[in-house]
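Supplementary Note 3. Input sequence used for the single-chain structure prediction.
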Amino acid sequence: MSFISRLAREPLVHFVLIGAAVFAAFSLFADDDETEARDRIVVTEGRVRQLAQIFAKTWQRPPTPQELRGLLDAFVKEEVYYREAVKLGLDRDDTLIRRRMQQKMEFLSEPGREVLAADDVALQDYLDSHKDNYRVDPKLAFEQVFIKAKASEEDAAGRAAEALKALTAGGDPAAFGDATLLPKDIPLSPLRAIERDLGEAFSKGLEDAPLGKWTGPVRSPFGLHLVRVSKREDGYDPKLDEVRAAVLRDWRNLKRQEYEAQAYDKLRAKYEVVLPAAKPSEPDKDKTK
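The predicted structure, written as discrete structure tokens, is reproduced below.
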């Protein structure tokens, strides 16, 4: 009996050949299935409705059958180019695509309603911890006489002193001061707004100004001002009911940031990040001389 005949009778050889045939058949059909799934573009009814809805919102009417067909052709074309681009790896080093994918992942990690639900206890605790953010500014209403430094600071100061003396004696404010685009009468305004428009030094000068009396001069970036405060309201820390909407908005933003940070930390823990070795700093040239 020949060697080949004996080999053909061995059970082990039969097992190896059958296993090889099964593996080859599986690989063949698996590749075919994978190729078919990869190259098959399925347009669902939901996608058709979405395309039609987008068209209707844009043009304020539903698409005609021909227009809908054009939308479907455009979608298929987009999908074909997208898949081919992915096969070529064109999405890997594109900053815009990477950022868009990051935005989608961050959107998927948005917290649910239960995380963003707050009771009065939580909101009051947040308000107590961030009082400065919600404090109601003092408010002032005043009238002013503007003195411009035409020749020198001494000249402006002298004219301001003369005008203040006359105003204190009952003079008409319209008879004094220089022309300006600044309003003569300022309605009740937050001190922060006054500081924004006329500077910190000016707003601080108004804080100690007596009520109903001409005082000054108070300096601003524009020049000197004689002022008479007609009304003053003190600042205060509001109750929760006064600022509930703002507190709830800020509290939710904080919780959202905390939730997203935790979600990122969980994802980050899956990866080992290897950074390039730090290059040794160059010696100071002055020290080497």
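The chain has twelve helices and four strands. The beta strands are 139-147, 185-190, 214-220, 223-233.
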